[in-house]
Amino acid sequence: MGHLSVLVLFAFRKWFQNDGGLLATVRRGFIKPFQRASWDLPTGDEIITILFTSNLIGVTFARSLHYQFYSWYAQQLPLLLWRTKYPLPIKLALLLGVEYSWNVFPSTNTSSYILNASHILIIGGLWFGYPTGTRRKKVSFKDNIHEVEDNTDVPFSELD
Question: Which of 25, 43, 45, 44 is nearest to 35 (CA)?
Answer without folding.
Answer: 25
